[in-house]
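Workshop exercise sheet. Pairs work together: one partner reads the sequence aloud, the other fills in the structure field after running the prediction. Swap roles for the next sheet.
Pair: D.N. / O.F.
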Amino acid sequence: MNRITRYFFEGLLLVAPVAITLYVIVWIAKLIDRLNPTPIPGMGLVLTASFITLTGFFASNYLARTVGKRVDALFTRLPFVKMLYQSIKDLMEAFVGSKKSFDKPVLVSLSPGCVSVIGFVTLESLEHIGLKDKVAVYLPQSYNFAGNLIVVPKEQVTPIDASSGAVMALIVSGGISGGNGKR
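Structure field:
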């Protein structure tokens, strides 16, 4: 029963943000359609998409960045909130931000000639913590919103000549997605 409960909450963590986002977009689009004196099919959706795009535009300008920095400063001062906020912020930036971190897919040999794992180099030098000739590799987990960070010697890491998106799809799907191989 504990496993089912854990799966439920892990699924909820994946589904809830998407479902809530879609619900809000549809709700706003319907609201705009109701408020429009001359209904035009799809106008609410077009205006909602335009609003979201404009919000993104304003978020990238100087004023919004200044407000964002103040919110960031506030959230990073609160003990528990800081940990949660910074983790979510870093994860989002790693996937879609200007500081994309999952852009160097690699094959890591854990047991030469036997076991290898696929991951992404996130730090190419760990000298700042006294680990010379080591790299940090993030290993996303399949069907999960989690992963592990491992530290391995550089010589055990082989770059993969494939797009980060294709490699991530392969890992997250448990090897089912992103390939033409036979099952």
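Discussion prompt: The chain is about 50% helix and 20% strand. What would you look at next?
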